[in-house]
Predict the structure.
Amino acid sequence: MYDAQKFTILIVDDIPQNIQVAATALRSDGFNVSFATSGEEALERVQSIKPDVILLDVMMPGMDGYEVCEKLKANPATNNIPIIFLTALNEIDAAVKGFELGAVDFVNKPFNNAELLARVNTHCKVGYLQRIVNEKNQILEDINASLEMHVANRTQELEASLHQEKRFNQMTMGLIGLISHEFRTPMTIIQNGVELMHYADTLPAEEANSQRDKIGTQITDSITIMTNHLESISDMLRTHTTLIHEQPVEMMINAYIHDTVTQFNKRFMPKQNVELSLPQSEIVGFIMPDNLSMAITQLLKNAIKYSPDFSTVTVRMMAEQNLMRISVEDEGKGITPEDERSMYEWFHRGMNETQMGSTRGLGLGLALVRMCVDTMQGSIQHEQRPTGGTRFTISVPIPQLEVSGDYTQLAAQLGVQI
């Protein structure tokens, strides 16, 4: 609401009596008043008091009102201050020149108090309303910028989601053919094993027991292969669902990674020694827990698969400037140049896999890691360790969701919903 008490008027006149008359009238109407008796003093006073309106006498010794006006209008910090020239009745040409220099009005001397107050109030109100308009325009610009950023981010997310969906559909088609091929061999072994069990009944007892043990081992291995395949497929399907639905949540990240590695050891009971290195201070941030857990688990499974028994697999976590890096290092044979070219693609299986004596998988592990990392808007790199083995590192942002500004209340002033 407009209130004269909130406005300061600077009177510039070399005649003290004129200043006194104008100041008395302005103070009676509630204005704050300051004054200067020369052009030089006026320019200094403007910098310190930042007046809302300047009453400027035209004819002054030394620097006259025109020169003062020119300097004020040439300064970006003062060029918006309304200037009302004080002129004598016969100085019409002076008023016209003042308008040309940027003045907004003039008042004749000697002053008519009612006229002086009317003109000063008018320009204070105009300035007041202009500031409100500018503030609201700034609010609208901020809201518009925020909405544009939101739309851009959302568009990017949708494009990424469509890209992921396309890749997933392509992978699904390939998976159908792969399942048919990969399940056929263990199913055939199981089927033949059942028939051989019946044949073993016709053999002498010792030979029959040996045959049954051999067949049992083959059936068990085949079931293990199919179980691992089904788990990989389940992980892949669950991850795809996560890509669509999971949202970041605030968590104690060190503790979550510790739990993930602990659960991995309990579930898979690897023969390798899995070590975990975490920062001493707890990192709290917003992450996608399912995606992060899946990425770490798949990297660990990959490391175990390509590592000799009783070797060490190390998980390290580091955080800096809202970025988290998690590395998984193994002591295996490393990656062949042929594998490096396509190891993040669906169904790629490393050449060293069977050499380590591990059960051959479907080639989904590193592709799942990449899918999770992409969902978390992160990245993945790998490198051969100088001492042997491979180090995979995923880098994931862990924002604190800092808000640059709360536009809700400001928008409400404009009747805008965001």
